[in-house]
TrEMBL record:
InterPro entries: PTAC
Official protein name in the record: Phosphate propanoyltransferase
Subcellular location: Bacterial microcompartment
Gene Ontology BP term (one): 1,2-propanediol catabolic process
Amino acid sequence: MNATQIDRTQIESLVRQAIQQSLGGGPSVAADGSASPPGWVNGKPNLRVSISARHVHLTDEHVETLFGPGAVLEPEKPLYQDGFYAAKQTVMVVGPRRRMLPSVRVLGPTRSASQVELAFTDSISLGIDAPVRHSGKIDDTPGCVLVGPAGTVQLDRGVIRAARHVHMNFADADFYGVADGDMMQLKITSNDCSTVFENLLVRADKAAKLEVHIDTDEGNACHLDRASKVELTKSGCSCKA
């Protein structure tokens, strides 16, 4: 398989596996000694719903421009998905008319294209008409200026409102009867503000753990922090898993 045939999902899976191996990680083990799929508890998927706050992805080149020659991302906190982390570094994101967000966290590892992911209120604050896009789909999107301690980067594109999605491994996908690229539905039950989110894109690969990503505005709208129940179902299906 050559590089042009590897899509972004496959690349993420390879990155996860490589970093896990370098850290000495391995598959989880069930009570009977058999290997469990990543993230499973008591023989079934363990659903996690996370708020993905505004953040930035950078290329190696832009890391050096913003933080100095030879700079690399320094992991500060691991994310739920193995091999991914919040870096120690932050950048200022500057929009039109010098509107800015002062300290936006950089996530690692680095990517082939820099990208800024915002919630709707963030984009309003910056004065940027950021479209809803799935990560990596940055054609015909607006840009911004990134400011770091060592320099600035003018992005001609890459500012998006990240579309809601669900990470899962292939065993999770079989459990729910879905495949990579399908759409799912998430119901959040909270006191007086229960919410149903449609159009969750399935992003399935070998190493992922079951996790829904919604943005800050969506998390606040459904009062996720006080939710009493979360239900993930295949779109168009009345059953509940």
